[in-house]
Amino acid sequence: MGMTLAEKILAKASGKKEVSPGDIVMAKIETAMVHDITGPLTVNTLKKEGIEKVWDNEKIVILFDHQVPADSINAAENHILMRKFVKEQNIKHFYDIREGVCHQVLPEKGHVVPGTVLVGADSHTCTHGAFGAFATGIGSTDMAAVFATGELWFKVPETLYFNITGELKPYVMSKDVILHIIGKVGADGATYKACQFGGETVKNMSISSRMTMTNMAIEMGGKTGLIEPDEKTIQYVKNAMKKHGTERTFEIIKADEDAEYEEVFEIEVNDLEPMIACPHNVDNVKAVREVAGTPIDQVFIGSCTNGRLEDLRIAIEIIEKHGGISDDIRVVVTPASREVMLKAMEEGIIQKFYKYECVVTNPSCSACMGALYGILGPGEVGVATSNRNFRGREGSLDSEVYLVSPATAAACAVKGEITDPRDL
Ligand SMILES: CC(C)[C@H](C(=O)O)[C@@H](O)C(=O)O
Ligand code: SF4
Q1: Over the stretch 337-367, which tens digit does the pLDDT of each residue have?
Q2: Where is the Aconitase/3-isopropylmalate dehydratase large subunit alpha/beta/alpha domain positioned along the sequence (predicted)?
Q3: Are residues 110 and 230 part of one domain?
C-alpha cells in the first residue's frame, strides 16, 4: 500500500520500510529547537536527570524571540540560564535576542531539512512542513529526552489532504485560504492529523505564503502541516544552507501515487473573499465584509504567520496608496526576522511605515502573544495578522482580537475600522 508524505518521512526516520497510521515509531530527529520561554524547562530537566552531554551539539538550535530584549527580570534570568547552557554544551547554532521569530529564522538559516523530522518546543513548529519536513511542536520535557538521545516516539498520524485549486483574486492571500479551511474544519477538526496542502494554488504560492498555511495547521489541531517540496523549496533550502554554512544532505520525499488519505478536501479558491477569524476562536471565521465597520483600537502586522517581506510589502502598498493610517488607532509592525527587516529597509518599506506613523519594532514575537508589547487593554479591539485570538491572547481578558491577512490589516489601519481591502 502506498504511503503519504508524513508516513514516508516517519518510516525513513525510524529505519522502517513501511509504516501505517496508528503505528508507534521511534524516529531520529534531524533538528531540535527551543526558545527563550521553553528552553529553561528543557535545560532544568536535563540537569535533574543528570544528563551531562547533549546528543549532538550541531543539531540543536537555541533562539530567543518571545521576550527580546528581556522585558522583565524573569526573562533576563531565562536568557542567562540559556546562554550558560549554550557555552557549556558548545551549541553551534545559537541566536541571541537579535534574529527574530524562531519559525522564520530556522528556515532562513538553513536549519530546515526536507524529508527529515524536526521538533521544536513551540506549537507552531508545524510551519516547517512547508519545506516537506515532518515538523511538530513538543513539550519542554519531551525535548529534554530529544536533547539526551536524538530520538522521539511518535504515533503515525492519518493524513488529511487539502487539494486547493483556482486563482486567488487581488487582495486575497494564503492567509484567507487557511482561515477559510479552519472555518470549515473547525479548531479541533484535524486533531493529531497530518494536514497536507497541495494543488495548483499551493504550487503557485511563494514559500512565504506556503509557510502561512502550514503555520496554522495547529489551529485545527493538526500534528503537522505539510507541503510536498518542489523546485522552489529546493532552491530556498540550498540558498539558505549555502549562505549560512549550514549545509546538510537531504532527500526530496514525495507521497506515493497510491497513498491513502483519511479524507480529501476539495477547496476551490476562485471566488474566495478576504476572511476574518472573529473573537474568541480561530474557527469563528467570516467574510471580512460581514463584520466591516467594527471599530478597532490597534492593528498588529507581524508574527510567524505573516511577518515576512511579502506581507510588509502589500501592507505598505495599501497604506501608501490611501495616504496613511487613521488618526484614531495605532499600528504596530514587526518584521519576522532581522533578514526580513534588512530587506524591508533596503526597499524603503520601514521608512514608509515610519512616515505613515506606524510603530516598527525589533524582530520578535511582539504583540502576538500579549507577552512583550503592543498589549491590548480592557475593552480594546485589535486586528492582527497572527494566528490566535483566544480570550486574552493579546492582553486583557476583556479585549478582542480579529485575525486577518496583511492586506486586510492594512485596510483596517487606513480606515480605523474593520475593512475589506477591496472596499477602500
Ligand atoms: C510560548 C510558546 C510555548 C507558545 C507556543 O508554543 O505556541 C507561543 O509561541 C504561542 O504562540 O502561543
Ligand atoms: S510569533 Fe506568535 S505564534 Fe509565532 S512563535 Fe511567536 S508567540 Fe508563537
Answers
A1: 999 999 999 999 999 999 999 999 999 999 9
A2: 8-291
A3: yes
